[in-house]
User: Fold these one by one.
Assistant:
Number 1:
Amino acid sequence: MRFALVTGPLRWLIATHQVAGGEPARRTCAECGTRLWPSVGNPFGRCPFGHRVGAPAWLVEILVIVSIALVVLLSGPRPAAAFWLGCAIVLGTIDGLVHRLPLPLVGVMAGGTAALLALDAALGGGWDNLVRAGLAAAGLGVLFFLLCLPRNGFGLGDATLAVPIGLALGWFGWSAVLIWALLASLLAGATGVALLLLGKASRQTRIPMGPYMLIATVLAVAIS
Ligand SMILES: [Zn+2]
């Protein structure tokens, strides 16, 4: 039951933002008009009348269990890591479903992570970690903003997502940033090639970058 107190709100956030860019957040099931809260909190990814809403069945639940294990294993800023992972589950799933990263949610992720990291630094986690996190966030943010200008697959959402990703990577060291850059390109590249070979994508298909950037962050922190 307590588990659903975490997964329910995450599922609700995903379902309400499962709309095309520019459209307002959804409050009801698109098929039958049932209010999404609290009906969408179940693990089956369906409204009470069986229509698909939000994240696929059990996806959020599995990701939350993995996240709890990661936070328990982490020797570092656990509150910031838990908050970051919760936001990553929501944003990664939304990006995978409707290929967008809502700016207000990315802003909450960046602001909340920065505040919790600052609290950890103040409580003895180390100011040098916080400074490096800030530098990495600013650096990756600017770099991805420049990358998205020529419209080569990176969108503005990816550029803003680079800020909370930079915060997480920078805290753990510059080696994490380098490992992340390598892993993110490998993951996205391998998926792109696999989709081309399977005939499920053409060269023009835009792959959502958010999930790869987020998964690569978790792997890079784990490795470094
Ligand atoms: Zn429905």
Note: The chain has nine helices and no strands.
Number 2:
Amino acid sequence: MAMIVSVDRLRLAARQTLPRWLFDYLDGGSYSESTLHRNIAALSEWRFVPQVLGALPQPDVRSSIFGRQQDVPIVLAPVGMAGMLSPDGEIKAARAAAGQGVQACVSHFSIVPIERIVQAVDPDFLAFQLYIFRNRDITRDMVSRAWDCGIHTLVVTVDTPVTPLRERDARNGFRNVSRLSGRHIAHMMVRPRWTFRAARAKGRTIGNLDRYGMGSNLFAQAATIAREIDPHIGWDEIRWLRDTWKGRLVVKGVMQPDDSAQAGRLGVDALVLSNHGGRQLDGAVAAIELLEDNIKAAGSVTEILVDGGFRYGTDVVKAVALGATGVMIGRPYAYGLAADGEQGVADVLDYFRQGILSTMTLLGAPDIAALRDNRDRLLRNL
Ligand SMILES: Cc1cc2nc3c(=O)[nH]c(=O)nc-3n(C[C@H](O)[C@H](O)[C@H](O)COP(=O)(O)O)c2cc1C
């Protein structure tokens, strides 16, 4: 049974654990943060119509994501610098996920280098998220490193040609200054447990990037990396990756149905509809709002995942009923990681699993196919 009672509670625990500049980096969004809130509101607009008589107590929510069978339709989203939330955080998160048969997508901006993650976690449970850098030699090197590690799913994120202002980061001097300041130290002094652990930990830089000389400390790297992402990428780059990457190719961050159709034509295996958790285009729609249009456009060969604002098992069931292959979760597991390391992530996954199962039972849906077949009876947008 999950030890946690809600993601909101876990968020508070993370706030009490992390120095303010780090919590705000994790928790915040761009400008007014309206998209951050919209993600949650849009999910709550879908309401269930219960179907209780004849319900089955043990629903089956197995589904295939990125070519792998999973017990629950959830993947851990790439979260940059997750290893700052807890020492070796990327390893802890991926290990907790693999322990429950769930895949984790490692961020390009991982504190623990991928070579070290695959020593601890079966790469079959891992995907690697790539940003296309202006420097194509670095980009190519990163892609080969992922493949050489035995990772066969590449998730290329395309929604970050620029990084808009994130007010909380700007206020805290994170990602715009290149050294630790008195203000950061003040935040750390009131979080002695985190600070003590971080001081003893090995990873104090974005270890995945260390070899490319983008700054000698975390603050310098954090200030540089957004500028390294190529703002001019287009379909040529997707075509290039499709031609060179022998494994499954996933594009993350599209929202326009035309783009999904084009990705399908180019042989992209899966899409993640996403507004980057409300951290990019402020005022953007939530992915769930455009899910059905994108499914229609992409055709049946493409898997379509969604992310942004998923906080309950009920949210996951809504997305799957609407036709999503699965859901990525970002902040929920990151809060768990900050609050309680590997166990915290395992608890979050367990919490989602229990929520998904009870929801399916209350909808009288024995499996995902039944849920989709009865979508009009079971779901209303109000
Ligand atoms: C702290 C933080 C860092 C993130 N870093 C990345 C990243 O490096 N690459 C990426 O593709 N998405 C990144 N994202 C976006 C997530 O992959 C995901 O799209 C988003 O968190 C989903 O929304 P949710 O947090 O409401 O679940 C990040 C999100 C957060 C909160």
Note: DSSP finds 17 helices and twelve strands in the chain.
